[in-house]
Write a structure and sequence with these properties.
Radius of gyration of chain B: 19 Å
CATH topology of the largest domain in chain A: Glycosyltransferase
Shape of chain B: flat
CATH architecture of the largest domain in chain A: Alpha/alpha barrel
Number of helices of chain B: 4
Largest sheet of chain B: none
Shape of chain A: flat
Pfam families (chain A): Ribophorin_II, Ribophorin_II_2nd, Ribophorin_II_3rd, Ribophorin_II_C
Number of helices of chain A: 18
Number of domains of chain A: 4
Helix content of chain A: 40-55%
Structural class of chain B: mainly alpha
CATH class of the largest domain in chain A: Mainly Alpha
Radius of gyration of chain A: 47 Å
Order of helices and strands of chain B: HHHH
Strand content of chain B: under 5%
Structural class of chain A: alpha+beta
Strand content of chain A: 15-25%
Distance between the termini of chain B: 57 Å
Strand order of the largest sheet of chain A: 10-11-7-5-13
Protein name (chain A): Dolichyl-diphosphooligosaccharide--protein glycosyltransferase subunit 2
Subunit structure (chain A): Component of the oligosaccharyltransferase (OST) complex.
Number of strands of chain A: 24
InterPro entries (chain A): Ribophorin_II_2nd, Ribophorin_II_3rd, Ribophorin_II_C, Ribophorin_II_N, Swp1
Largest interface: A-B, 38 and 31 residues
Number of domains of chain B: 1
Domain Ribophorin II second (chain A): 309-416
Oligomer: heterodimer
């Protein structure tokens, strides 16, 4: 188990190292499967459709979703109607890939409309779309006149928006200049040049070349040689990220350089740096980013400035125990084969000591069948550790130096791993005062043997071992931990220090009793030795020691609570026990019933008393109407009382109040009637 | 001495009783009603003393119902008594109507409190 864990550690380390390589590889199959997932054939606009189709075209993905029917329908719709220029532009782009059936007259109408737009347009974006659309028509249909009559003037009006630092403004009334706009402008200018009916003035083209060079002066840079463009101002309404800005510039510059006759002298390392930037992004999760990345790489793959060549390593870990070969791959950015070249290992040195050169100028052998360059004989003097290998690409064809950007000397971190020999492991219990050895045991750390020891607080525990590299040098790992774990799960970790060749730790229990919280009993011992370049990193139990520590004094520090196991947080929660109020003690039922009947006694007394007094109903009105009122009055009272009983049993206060209100009105009416009748009769009696 | 005092007490009670016998019958009815209410309240208090006051609101509403209605009856008696010149102008029927209304309101509250 421990060995397995150790192996896992090494694997994890290796994985993290591979992830940290500064040189990203070219576009691979991972990109293709990601593209298939990202562009699933559903799109809301022709722009999205174009992006999907273009990515499939560049990456040569075979089993793409068939969108041509729906897309073509949309294309024809957009080309026919008087839709905005932007929609026209993307409709033409999609048409360029899908070759939909469009009537040639439609193109003629559009061309006339577009030409009018070009001369009227005031903003850069309008010009960009209309000129771009004209170029697309020119590429797709041969017999439509798309040439610009006043190409010089159009060129000038676009150029008029440029700034002194090579960036462009979106329109003449917008003072903000933008790098993204520069890309659009360059692409539009390239379009103007290809649409010009007569040659554009060379001096104008030259100034634009200068603008490009100035634009490349403002390029941003990372320490590892990655170059990219970013917008200087933030907060504009059309702010673009660095990816879309960079890809806009790449699109513009490459379009421009492909239509002019001369060459723009851009430094090769900047072009390579741009390629690094796009590749360094990895696989974007956003469709737009993905398109920008892939399209820019495709443009870099085949351009007239310089074609970047990417050096990548399938593995940056070299194992001394396996003795396999160090492989290097050189490709273009999209992963196609490079021109004939030789990879040279200029030198290699330990990453912590720059002047300790271990290898110097070696040529790698080219393996034609696999297309990789191999360092066949790994030098024997290389021990485990982290190294920096410096490669250089030498093109066989010296003329290719101008076409390809190789990036000069490329630094690659390489991890050389090997099996570390663990020897002379020894664990001993010493008497503190004399230092005499009480028990001493040898350990084979490669095996599974465990030891059983016992000690008291007056003794010491000594543990020591040695580590040796395959070349016999002393090895110092990243981690060497000695752990004591009590039965109660309280654990103490000590770092094993090294003195020259030997790793040794001496635990003086007298000084540690307080740290151990005076906990006597069995302590399990565990040893961890691990390093990124150590293939046999391990974590293994060494056995246990029975410790006898003195009783804790009064003032001793309390045992801290054990840290909560983080995994428990995701486990089931402890069950919640609800505490209910205990029901009140009720009296026996008989007692209550007795008192219920007792309550009746006064009532009976009341009735008997009434009889004794000779109460009668003689005063009850005898004539019909008052008698009826009297009866209704009593019934009304009875009804209210009944309602009260119902209120007690089931009704709520609101219903009760409403009903009481109604009954009350009735009761007041009849009560008033009967009582005033009674009053009048009694007053009549009195007066009589 | 003792015999004479007990005889005096008997005489006193007899005098009181004969004097009370002259009271109008309707006042006697009200007196009877008050006695009924007070005794009912007493029985409830005794019950509470025996078993404890757990549904305290029920006990309160029971006792207060009795006490309240007794107080209202006493008020009625004051108003109906012809010898009370203060209420000479007040018709007994009007006093009874007040009594009924007050009882209804009192018992609405009692029922609400009974729980």
């Amino acid at each position: 188990m421990a060995r397995y864990l150790g192996g896992l550690l090494v694997l994890l380390f290796a994985a993290s190292i591979c992830g940290a390589v500064t040189i990203p590889g070219p576009v691979s199959d991972a990109h293709r499967s990601a593209a298939s997932e990202l562009f699933d054939g559903s799109f809301s606009s022709l722009e999205e459709a174009y992006e999907a189709l273009r990515v499939f075209e560049i990456l040569a993905i075979g089993n793409k979703p068939d969108v041509s029917a729906t897309a073509c329908k949309k294309v024809v719709e957009n080309l026919g109607s008087s839709s905005p220029v932007k929609d026209l532009f993307y409709a033409l782009k999609v048409n360029g890939i899908l070759k939909c059936k469009v009537n040639a007259d439609v193109f003629k109408d559009i061309a006339v409309r577009l030409k009018a737009t070009v001369t009227d347009a005031s903003t850069l974006v309008d010009m960009y779309y209309s000129i771009g659309s004209l170029v697309l028509i020119k590429d797709q249909v041969s017999d439509v006149d798309v040439l610009l009559a006043d190409a010089d003037g159009t060129f000038h009006s676009i150029k008029a928006l440029s700034q002194s630092d090579g960036r462009w403004r979106y329109s003449s009334d917008n003072p903000e200049s933008s790098t993204y706009a520069a890309g659009l402008a360059l692409e539009a200018l390239a379009g103007v040049i290809s649409l010009a009916s007569s040659e554009i003035d060379l001096s104008r083209v030259k100034t634009v070349k200068n603008d490009i060079l100035k634009l490349f002066d403002s390029i941003e840079k990372y320490d590892d040689g990655t170059f990219y463009f970013d917008e200087k101002f933030v907060g504009g309404s059309e702010h673009q990220g660095s990816l879309s800005t960079t890809s806009s510039v790449v699109r513009g510059v490459i379009a421009f350089t492909s239509v002019i006759s001369g060459k723009v002298n851009l430094p090769g390392d900047k072009v390579l740096g741009l390629a690094k930037f796009f590749l360094g992004i990895g696989i974007p999760g956003d469709a737009k980013d993905f398109f920008n990345q892939v399209e820019s790489l495709a443009l870099l793959e085949n351009n007239r400035v310089s074609i970047p060549l990417v050096l990548s390593l399938p593995e940056t870990v070299y194992s001394l125990s396996k003795r396999d070969q160090l492989k290097v791959r050189v490709n273009t950015v999209l992963g196609s084969a490079s021109p004939p070249l030789t990879v040279k290992l200029v030198r290699a040195f330990r990453s912590d000591a720059k002047d300790s050169v271990i290898i110097e100028s070696k040529e790698l052998q080219y393996d034609k069948s696999n297309g990789i360059h191999v360092l066949e004989v790994f030098p024997d003097n290389v021990d485990v550790g982290t190294y920096v290998f410096v490669f250089e690409i030498v093109l066989h064809d010296s003329a290719g130096e101008k076409v390809f950007a190789t990036g000069g000397q490329i630094h690659v971190p390489i991890y050389v791993t090997g099996i570390i020999e663990v020897s002379n492991a020894e664990i001993a219990v010493l008497d503190s005062d004399l230092g005499s050895v009480e028990t001493q045991k040898k350990l084979d750390l490669a095996g599974n043997v465990v030891v059983e020891l016992s000690a008291n607080h007056l003794q010491k525990l000594r543990f020591s071992f040695q580590l040796k590299t395959p070349h016999g040098h002393a090895f110092k790992p990243h981690q060497a931990f000695f752990k004591l774990k009590h039965e109660t799960k309280h654990e103490h970790i000590f770092v094993v220090g090294n003195t020259g060749k030997k790793f040794e730790i001496v635990l003086d229990f007298l000084g540690l009793v307080e740290k151990f919280y005076y906990l006597s009993g069995r302590y399990d011992i565990e040893l961890t030795v691990g390093d990124a370049v150590m293939e046999n990193s391990f974590l293994r139990p060494l056995g246990h020691v029975d410790l006898e520590l003195p009783e804790a004094p009064e003032k001793a520090a309390r045992l801290p609570p054990l840290p909560v196991d983080p995994y428990l947080r995701y486990g089931p929660k402890a069950e919640i026990a609800h505490i209910f109020r205990a029901p009140e003690k009720r009296p026996p039922q008989n007692l209550s019933l007795t008192f219920l009947s007792l309550i009746l006694l006064p009532f009976i007394g009341f009735l008997v008393g009434l009889l004794r007094l000779g109460v009668n109903l003689k005063n009850f009105p005898s004539s019909a109407a008052p008698a009826a009122y009297a009866i209704l009055f009593h019934l009304g009272i009875a009804a209210v009382l009944l309602l009260y009983v119902l209120f007690w049993l089931k009704l709520d206060l609101f219903t009760t109040l409403k009903t009481v209100g109604l009954l009350g009105v009735f009761l007041m009416f009849v009560g008033h009637r009967i009582l005033s009748h009674l009053a009048s009769t009694s007053s009549k009696l009195k007066s009589a | 001495m003792a015999r004479s005092s007990s005889k005096d007490a008997q005489d006193l009670f007899r005098a009181l009783w004969s004097a009370y016998a002259a009271t109008p019958t309707n006042l006697k009815i009200i007196d009877l009603y008050v006695m009924f209410a007070v005794f009912t309240a007493l029985i409830q208090v005794v019950y509470m003393a025996l078993v404890g006051s757990f549904p305290f609101n029920s006990f309160l509403s029971g006792v207060l119902s009795c006490v309240g209605t007794a107080v209202l009856a006493v008020c009625l008696r004051i108003q109906v008594n012809k010898e009370n010149k203060e209420f000479k102008d007040l018709a007994p029927e009007r006093a009874f109507a007040d009594f009924v209304l007050c009882n209804l309101v009192l018992h609405l509250v009692i029922m609400n409190f009974l729980g």
